[in-house]
Amino acid sequence: MDVAALRRQAHGTRHPAAPALRRTLRLWQVAVSGIGVILGAGVYALIGPAAGLAGNALWLAFLLAGVAAGLTAYSYARLGTMRPKDSPEFQYTTLAFGPRIGFLAGWLMLAADLLAVAAVTLGFGGYLAYLLGTPIVANALVLLAVTGVFLLAGIGKSVALAILLTVVEVAGLVFVILIGLPDWSRMSFFEMPHGAPGLSAAAALIFFAYLGFDEIGNFAEEMRQPERDLPRALLLSMAGATLIYLLVAVSATAAVGWQGLSTSPAPLALVARQSLGPAAETTISVIALAATANTVLLLLVAAGRSVYGMAASGVLPRRLGAVGNRGVPTQATLLVTGISGMLVLLGDLARVAALTDAAVLLSFMLVNLSLPWVGSRRIKGPRLARRLLDLIVPSLAFLMCGWLLFHTGWSSLAVAGGLAIVGLAVGRRRPNRGVAAPPPAVRPEDGRPG
Question: pLDDT tens across 415-434, in order?
Answer without folding.
Answer: 888 888 988 887 665 544 44
